[in-house]
Amino acid sequence: xxxxxxxxxxxxxxxxxxxxxxxxxxxxxxxxxxxxxxxxxxxxxxxxxxxxxxxxxxxxxxxxxxxxxxxxxxxxxxxxxxxxxxxxxxxxxxxxxxxxxxxxxxxxxxxxxxxxxxxxxxxxxxxxxxxxxxxxxxxxxxxxxxxxxxxxxxxxxxxxxxxxxxxxxxxxxxxxxxxxxxxxxxxxxxxxxxxxxxxxxxxxxxxxxxxxxxxxxxxxxxxxxxxxxxxxxxxxxxxxxxxxxxxxxxxxxxxxxxxxxxxxxxxxxxxxxxxxxxxxxxxxxxxxxxxxxxxxxxxxxxxxxxxxxxxxxxxxxxxxxxxxxxxxxxxxxxxxxxxxxxxxxxxxxxxxxxxxxxxxxxxxxxxxxxxxxxxxxxxxxxx
Length: 383
Hints:
Elements (H helix, E strand, L loop, with lengths): L3 E6 L16 H4 L8 H23 L3 E9 L7 H14 L1 E12 L6 H9 L4 E7 L3 H7 L5 H14 L3 E8 L6 H12 L5 E6 L7 H7 L8 H17 L3 E4 L2 E3 L6 H7 L4 E4 L4 E4 L2 E5 L3 H9 L5 E6 L2 H12 L6 E2 L5 H12 L5 H5 L2 E2 L3 H4 L2 H8 L2
Helix pairs in contact: 2-3, 2-11, 3-4, 7-9
């Protein structure tokens, strides 16, 4: 059995205004300056992560690990030694594939040559930088802490140190971001030595600082048509630079695809370690308690950090397969759809939202315009 691991690092020095991820700042933890005393946080937290991996070993027994992904939060706030301890633990408890993809997310202003060197020596071979934008006023609106030039420096360092795959994340549709601003960001990303790009439309999540600013009229979200145009611009520029789309929000040069995320979209098994992390194994999905303190208490008491879960039915699996595979470049095998679902999908051929050539080959694959209304098409297929 294959089993990927996601390792959640729930700490940030500052929360970005749009962020509703399960991460905690010093003020939210009421523990003072996190960046000044991260070594203590790092060691204690990782000790508990290792204990949860022990729990995974007890429950799963034997498994082959094809990918490991450290996300957050800001994983690069923690000591490289402690992060590498997690890799060593997984290797000691499971069989790790020879070509195992081991990814770490990083904020550009949290990495140094020394840190990146130690991460590479510890087993990390892929790194994903949170670039978001190359335009200062856009970064300011997003409450990002780094400066545009810091991304290029970090990417160059990662290359010189020998990371096999390097990715950057972009966000489009920020209030005040013009089409020209977006083109600057895309072209800046393409000027770097990377083999993967993610680009996500900004979503206003309830309860965030951004949401409150929009409600008060301090910020105005751009029109949907403008946001869609930014997607088209990015997709065209990425393609011209040799990046092919393989998932709605992800593009890569040949061999640069994120295999960990592909495992999610293909419905493979994974174990999420840490507060709020989700896991999926066979027909079972579960999620851990969210707060680091609750997680600590469960682990220290020898209990599972699991908060709740669900068992997926055959119908659940079918629906999720549609929702996930429609996002991918290979799309959906028409043979797996009912006659009614095929009929509903066929309506989008005339409007060129679904590829004619792929349809004739027995697959439902979205065109560029179809990707912009993927959610609508999914709703019509889930009948």
